[in-house]
Amino acid sequence: MTGKSFSIFDCDSHIVEPPAIWDEYVPRDVRAWVKTQFHFHTDTDVLLINGRAVPASRERSNAAEVGWPGWSKREVGALTPGTDAWKAKFGRLAGCRDPRARLADMDALGVDQVMLFPSWFVRLPLVRDPRAATILATAYNDWVDDYASVDRRRLFPCAMLPIQSVEDSIAELRRVAKKGFKAAAVRPCFSNGRYPTLPEFDPLWREFEALDVVLAMHTFPSREALTPEWAERIARTRGTGNGLLFTDEAVVYSPGQFVSNIVFSMEPTIDASESLGFIFEAMTWLTSVLMTGWLEKFPRLKCAVLESNATWLPLVLGRSRNFLDLYAFQRGPKVADPFETFYRRCFIAFEGDEETVYRLWDLYDNVGLWSSDYPHHDAEDAWEALELMAKHNVPEATQRRLLGENARRLYGIDPVLVVTERAKDHRPAILPW
Description:
By secondary structure, the protein is of the alpha/beta class. It has a domain at 9-27 and 94-221 and 271-411: Alpha-Beta Barrel (TIM Barrel), CATH 3.20.20. The protein is built from 18 helices and 11 strands. A hairpin with a 2-residue loop joins strand 3 (46-49) and strand 4 (52-55). It starts with 8 loop residues before the first strand and ends in a 22-residue tail after the last helix.
């Protein structure tokens, strides 16, 4: 595939938070304290969260900035991130922090427009202090808005909310909506013991409706131990640390923890959280809202399921319908058919190498959103998606919808066509060390 004739929208691409968010955008008088509540970027080895320091993995951190599709996953995975050999061959992509470098990379990736999501700030729900969460969300949103200001036609920021406080989340949602944000991200996990579908959050979702902002349900790896006993077992297996990788205590906040904890308690202690953790979070949220009629409480709310692949969608829809029928005597009057509800109200992101989506293209025709996951280590480009769609005989009209029209319809964004030819020999700019 050497060229294209229509605009492509990347619905789930990432920045990687720089030190400037804490050092420049957090107010000076609270900066030192806020850093104790949550401070982590790829220039540090320690995660500060909730007043304590937790050793963080430099390998995992650097992997967040190495996703260039021209580099094979086996080659990326063969070298330990951060080592001299890794730096010489790959290095960290500058586009995750520098918007001008990103625009050049987008040209090479075949991407005309993009919705920008955080990397480490998806951990924000794990912060306990509501005031700290609000300060951090405001700082992040202001930084990413400045990043996107370099080209408002192509770069669109997604906001983070301080979900610890419904009132503060509403205030921040109103603030960013005035700035022009089209979406705000919420992670489908427990935050301070509360799940986002509980009734106390209802005023926030009504505010999403009133402001016509998209609710972006964005997942993330989960690696905390389920109990103190599991934390001790993981620590023994790993031979170091306390077994807790993202927080400072044993908690239960995500269904993705189960797979991660089992594998971390075995040999070799490979990081398995990304294999199913993202998917489990999204499947749990979607099953919950479909089988309870939750979405019917908010008839104008637009939802996108992101960072969790899409091949599992038919399974969840089918199983939800099956058991709603089997337990019809328990079914409330507002619980509609899951298929009808999802296709009327929701969208779901897929990545370029998900060939099952192309084989079953008719199931995703009006709800599928292509994502690159740039600059993370599993990133794909639009050219691969176009080639695989052609291989599986996906109709051109469907290709246009999956690769851009659905996303722009969801977000209310006009198309811009910048890239028509595939770049030759593009080398992405690399961050200096």
